[in-house]
Design goal:
heterodimer, A: alpha/beta, Peroxisomal Thiolase, Chain A, domain 1, ten-stranded mixed β-sheet, B: mainly beta, five-stranded antiparallel β-sheet, three-stranded antiparallel β-sheet, 2 helices, about 10% helix, about 40% strand, globular, binds zinc ion
């Protein structure tokens, strides 16, 4: 396998962007990444797009060709690929693009992720998110997406004594980080009390335990590592990648307080990169709900199983803590345009490893991790990044 | 979500009568029915037998849903739970005939045949299992 590096990154702001269409967003992120890499159109070999559900959100399928077209690449007749995999689609697109370069088939690939979620109402958007759970054996009985994560939270509280205050600490931390990110949907700090007093969504999760609905897009340019120096002074190497799946329905899983897909995807990525969780300084993990970040930091072996809540409350995962988690603000504060998630996480890690993260820069960041979930954890993807120098 | 009639009808045996499968190779019970045993894989093909659950189990975890899909709007707040059946298999269901604050992990429950939901005001009514405290 050939080595692959990131040579360009770009993103739009995330939020309820009523004046921007899916096309506008996809193009803005893609062009920013291409400019960042100083590429010409003719350098690009292929385009990969992560998108969860444009068919349901904006009634438009075939978005890979659409994005390439409106990015001015139609005349290049590039192969374009749209990847579906629930919330993990962007991270899977990145993995597939990496493989396409590693195999020798392509040298330079643009990977985008985009979602336009606010053209439908909130109830409908929540139902579309729920469609990544098991429609026949969960949703039809009344289980919502938040409800399924709430049941993981309840079980975690039961087994390990995790408290609502500790879960709230995830939201407070990520809003604090989001306040340092000019592209974040929420740039205001919040308090533990505000999280605890918010209306219920699915007990024990309240409104501020949930990531928002968002519009947004992100893109990265991948390049075969030996050529990467021609385009970037600080190419960021993809040191390892792991992907894993599990039972689609939460109730069929081995354990309700461990996402085995995360554990296995993490092991695969760390094995390939020949590093350990303790070698990571900065991580973007899938905090679609506060409990999800607690599960992720445990399942990725940053924190001992069951101690994710207290560790967060004690600040171990705060900016420049033991390990800095979700410096961008995460899905919680940066926003959650689903298809963009995995790619946006990679954008943040690349910025951190280049030393370009501004006020939220992690000191001495050399290795970074992204962790992305599909559904309630039936898919997990982990990527490891390192500075090339 | 709203389901087309054939889509719901196809699963009626399981949703009305708790019909699952039992692996003829290792004896593991699955619900809903599976064509291949997750434990035995290929060795189970052709050996999966129809198996009816007894309808009794206990609560493994639960939530109270406040933000509900349109179809369940009239029922909220309602309790959803993951239930471990006495046969060992787990499923997701609503809990009824119990106040949300009285639900406990470990609570014994039993299946009950009820209306699940309706497509729109004059739409098709779907039936299936819900669970209530075992009495
Ligand atoms: Zn078997």
């Amino acid at each position: 396998m050939r080595d692959v590096a990131v040579i360009g990154v770009g993103e739009t702001e995330f939020g309820e962007l009523w004046d921007r269409s899916f096309r506008d967003l996809g193009i803005e992120a893609g062009l920013k990444a291409i400019q960042d890499a100083k590429l010409r159109s003719e350098d690009i070999d292929a385009v990969y797009i992560g998108n969860m559900s444009a068919g349901k959100f904006i009634d438009q399928e075939h978005v890979s060709a659409l994005v390439a077209d409106y990015s001015g690449l139609a005349d290049m007749h590039l192969p374009t690929v749209r990847v579906e995999g629930g919330g993990a689609c962007g991270a899977i697109a990145l993995l597939q693009a990496r493989l396409a370069i590693a195999s020798g088939m392509h040298d330079i690939v643009v990977v985008g992720g985009a979602e336009k979620m606010t053209d439908v109402g909130e109830v409908q958007a929540a139902e579309i998110l729920s469609s990544t759970a098991d429609q026949e054996w969960e949703s039809v009985f009344g289980a919502t997406f938040a409800g399924l994560y709430a049941m993981m939270a309840r079980r975690h509280m039961h087994e390990f004594g995790t408290t609502r205050e500790q879960m709230a600490a995830v939201a407070v931390k990520n809003h604090k980080n989001g306040a340092l990110n000019p592209e974040a949907q929420f740039q205001k700090e919040i308090t533990i009390d505000a999280v605890l007093q918010a209306p219920w969504v699915a007990e024990p999760l309240g409104l501020f335990d949930c990531a928002p609905l968002s519009d947004g897009a992100a893109a990265v340019v991948l390049c075969e590592a030996q050529r990467a120096r021609k385009f970037s002074d600080t190419p960021i190497r993809i040191a390892g990648s792991g992907q894993a799946s599990d039972f689609l329905a939460l109730h069929d899983r081995r354990d309700l307080t461990t996402l085995d897909a995360t554990v296995i995807a993490g092991k695969r990525a760390f094995h390939e990169a020949k590093i350990m969780p303790k070698d990571i300084q900065v991580a973007e993990v899938h905090d679609n709900f506060t409990i999800s970040e607690i599960l992720a930091i445990e399942d990725l072996r940053f924190i001992e199983k069951g101690k994710g809540g207290p560790a967060t409350a004690e600040g171990l995962t705060a900016l420049n803590g033991k390990i800095s988690v979700n410096t961008s603000g995460g899905l919680k504060a940066r926003g959650q345009p689903v298809g963009a998630t995995g790619v946006a996480q990679a954008v943040e890690i690349v910025r951190q490893l280049r030393g370009e993260a501004g006020k939220r820069q992690v000191v001495g960041a050399r290795h970074g991790l992204t962790h992305t979930l599909g559904g309630t954890g039936a898919t997990a993807v982990v990527h490891l990044f390192e500075r090339g120098d | 979500m709203s389901l087309a009639i054939p889509r719901f009808w196809r699963e009626i045996q399981s949703r009305y009568n708790l019909i699952g499968t039992k692996c003829g190779n290792c004896g593991k019970v699955d619900f809903p029915p599976r064509a291949v045993c997750p434990v035995c894989g290929r060795k189970s093909i052709g050996k999966m037998q129809r198996f009816q659950l007894g309808g009794k189990g206990s609560v493994v975890t639960y939530t109270v849903i406040h933000d509900a899909p349109a179809q369940f709007e009239m029922q909220k707040p309602y309790v959803m739970a993951i239930i471990e059946m006495d046969e060992g298999v787990r499923l997701t269901s609503q809990l009824i005939d119990v106040k949300p604050e009285d639900v406990r992990i470990g609570m014994k429950v039993q299946a009950s045949f009820r209306k699940l939901g309706q497509d729109g005001d004059a739409g098709v009514i779907h039936y299936g299992y819900k669970f209530r405290p075992a009495g």
